[in-house]
Amino acid sequence: MQAIDPDAVGDVHAVWADAVAAPDWAGPPVWVHGDLHPANVAVSDGTLLGVIDCGALFAGDPAWDLAAAWVLLPAGATARFFDAYAHADEAAIRRARGLAAMKSLLLMLMGQNGDRSRPRGKPNWGPAGRAALDRVLKGV
């Protein structure tokens, strides 16, 4: 698994800086899964069947789960997803995009650890993380 392209590091930093600069969630805390990624959802023929591993469940900012738009959905689906989601204002989307960048990098790291036969490494997570990071950086 190839590490992040050195030319993209500045882009990742810009996404993260924008997320940090976005206004905080001002609404009441909502229940969020907190760890939505390809290994924690069950899908069949493109239809979500269920969500598993609720060990990170908490009440807080919905941006944590909205980050799944980049991590789980195919390129081009994020705009439609956010248009349909009633609570996805610009600030939530900015925070979610930053969290999606972080989650993508973690998936890539887990994949790299798997490629190197390190404990708890998951070699098949690297490509999913790379694809998600590409979507995050392209904003699609």
Automatic annotation (TrEMBL):
The keyword Transferase applies. Residues 12-99 form the Aminoglycoside phosphotransferase domain. Keywords: Transferase. The keyword Metal-binding does not apply. Pfam families: APH (PF01636). SUPFAM superfamilies: Protein kinase-like (PK-like). One of its GO terms (molecular function) is transferase activity. PANTHER family: AMINOGLYCOSIDE PHOSPHOTRANSFERASE-RELATED-RELATED (PTHR21310), BIFUNCTIONAL AAC_APH (PTHR21310:SF42). This is Phosphotransferase family enzyme.
